[in-house]
Amino acid sequence: MKILLIEDDKESAKYLLKGLREQGHVVDHSATGKDGLFMAASEKYDAMIVDRMVPEVDGLTIIQTLRASGNETPAIVLTALDKVDERVKGLKAGADDYLAKPYSFTELLARLEAITRRKAGEKAVTRLTCGDLEMDLLTRTVKRAGKLIDLQAREFALLEYLMRHSGTVVTRTMLLEHVWDYNFDPQTNVIDVHISRLRHKIDKGFEKSLIQTLRGAGYKLAL
């Protein structure tokens, strides 16, 4: 997922950024409500994590402003205020969930998955297939011809993006924006390295190669 984190506490932000990125998510961060609101309105995100008391523009105002403009990006509000009326205010402002500090990172991940599924509707995709390649988004497992394939978090995120766009060309820029942070150097070979590792795991030992490189264009997962 591509996530926007709006959190002014340096230690909390560092903890969340590290944890979310280790899970294979792409995360943009803002330490102020003003910048966070601008980023949320300018970019497309799968979810937002918003601290209730960020400076310049508070978390609830951020969400209210976005909802008023038609932006329905799923949002979790983090807060040290654990009173019922505060939680009610957050939900009425348009937040999809409310999590009191201190919280479990595992619980935060589960709530992120829950709100994105709810926003997508009851028919949200939980399994992707491409030929004999299968990906279960709930258990985060990948199989080819029934054989379980062990992937690192970033490899899983890369393959998920390719599978969601199977049969179409995916450019390096698209991968940098959706699988890595957008501020990566476009000339970096990080994509080539991960594609090579992924191809070794996905295609080695099989007659048909699924991951194709289109020189000068990008990559494609063959149907």
Summarize the structure in words.
Helices cover 41% and strands 21% of the residues. It has 223 residues and is an alpha/beta fold. It contains eight helices and eleven strands. A five-stranded parallel β-sheet has the order 2-1-3-4-5, sandwiched between helices.
Note the main attributes of this structure:
single chain, 223 residues, alpha/beta, Rossmann fold, Arc Repressor Mutant, subunit A, 2 domains, five-stranded parallel β-sheet, four-stranded antiparallel β-sheet, 11 strands
Furnish the topology, listing elements before pairings.
Layout: E1 2-6, H1 10-22, E2 26-30, H2 33-42, E3 47-51, H3 59-68, E4 75-79, H4 84-93, E5 97-100, H5 105-120, E6 127-130, E7 133-136, E8 141-144, E9 147-149, H6 153-164, H7 172-178, H8 190-203, E10 211-214, E11 218-221
Helix pairs in contact: 2-3, 6-8
